[in-house]
Amino acid sequence: MNVADAIRGRRSVGRVRQDGISRERILRMVEAATWAPNHKVTEPWRFVVIAGDARDALGEAHADAVARANGSPLSPEARSGAVALTRRAPVIIVCICTPSSDDPVVRREDRDAVSAAVQNLGLAAHADGLGTIWRTGLFVDEDEVRAHLGCAPADEIVGFVYVGEPEEAPAAPPRRPAEEVTEWRGWD
Ligand SMILES: Cc1cc2nc3c(=O)[nH]c(=O)nc-3n(C[C@H](O)[C@H](O)[C@H](O)COP(=O)(O)O)c2cc1C
User: Fold this and answer.
1) pLDDT per residue over 154-170, tens digit each?
2) Hey, which of 5, 44, 105, 138 would disulfide with 110, CB 3.0 to 4.6 Å?
3) Rounded CA separation 123/117 (Å)
């Protein structure tokens, strides 16, 4: 698959099968992620690959955070609903930025590099026939989830990339034409 086709054809795929994905395929995605551009090659990324019952442990951390935010324990139904969010795909790759410096410019660049890495994950998965969706939502800021993932105070969870064999082929959300978002200067 050439790059233009991969970029254009990648979709966010929310519905995927529960079949497991091999470590080799996941590692190929992560390797692609690590080739993202990265100012001064600080390599500010960390990837936590979660599958099987480990998804429930992540979901429990999220449920604890929701209960704390609500100020009361969740009903059993609400709790299992919150936990089940992590069962929407067989594998979740949590993409974490560990900034290489306190300098705000470096912190921004490091986070930008991790975002580029997340895009690479999605493109590599797509080229391998896998579906992904980059999810953020409440999870990324929840103390319980951050602690569960071993985040230091400066770490930022950039995304949860859900991965699986596609069960749908979503239509492409339209984009504005390139000409409309481009300002030309110094051109005839
Ligand atoms: C930073 C970021 C956060 C996102 N968070 C979510 C999310 O929490 N839930 C979700 O369904 N999609 C999420 N998405 C996926 C977008 O909704 C999706 O990229 C958009 O609808 C365009 O569709 P496409 O990726 O198929 O082109 C996120 C995308 C980005 C870049």
Assistant:
1) 999 999 999 999 999 99
2) 44
3) 10
Domain ranges of the chain: 7-51+88-168
- SS3 breakdown of the chain: % helix, strand, coil, rounded to 5? 45, 15, 35
Domain 7-51+88-168: CATH class, spelled out: alpha beta
Q: How confident is the model at residue 123 (pLDDT cuts 50, 70, 90)?
A: very high
- Backbone dihedral region of 71: left (phi > 0), alpha (psi from -120 to 50 degrees) or beta? left
Residue among 142, 92, 145, 136 nearest 115 (CA): 136
Count how many residues are written for the chain.
Answer: 188
What is the model's pLDDT at position 163? 98
* Cα 174 to averaged position of ligand 1 atoms, centre (Å): 14
| Protein residue whose Cα sits closest to atom 29 of ligand 1 | 134
87 vs 128: CA distance, rounded Å: 22
Q: pLDDT per residue over 63-111, tens digit each?
A: 999 999 999 999 999 999 999 999 999 999 999 999 999 999 999 999 9
- State which of 97, 133, 142 you would mutate to test the pocket of ligand 1, scoring each by most atoms of that ligand within 8 A of its C-beta: 133
